[in-house]
Design a protein that fits this description.
Length: 162
Amino acid sequence: MNRFSRRRHQLKGRVAAIASDRLNAEDLMRATRPLERAGYGVAVVSGGEAMLTAKSERSDDVQLLAASTIGDMDFDRYCALILPGGVGEISESARLVADRFLEAGKPIIAMSDGVKLLADAANSPDAADATAAISMRGQVFAARGETAIEDATELFAEGLAA
């Protein structure tokens, strides 16, 4: 037996993160950390590019490799969706994906400009000005305040794991 071999844990599910070159890297990282701790894999799905350049809060470039494009996305492979800041640039194609997840009753978390996209898709105008929002079983819950994104991402991960 190789004492250095690691046992790979089976994923509980895969979560798609819609992204563009204007992606807010901090939003994506805040959303993925609690999901990965809960046993979920996160795959970046782009509007068309294979390699994306996201921006961090410090304006550093973060390079991301997309697992697929929205056009090639295998919808059934994913159990939930992340709409981080920056999806406004590809809003039409991201909206189609959000519509499909909503129709299937799959959970969605949105941050920054992704919240407006989710609010429009879910016909929940009261959530459009929130900092973050979650859609669970067709209902949209808005989060506001300084810790809205952190609170929403933790609740989203807990909701998926339940």
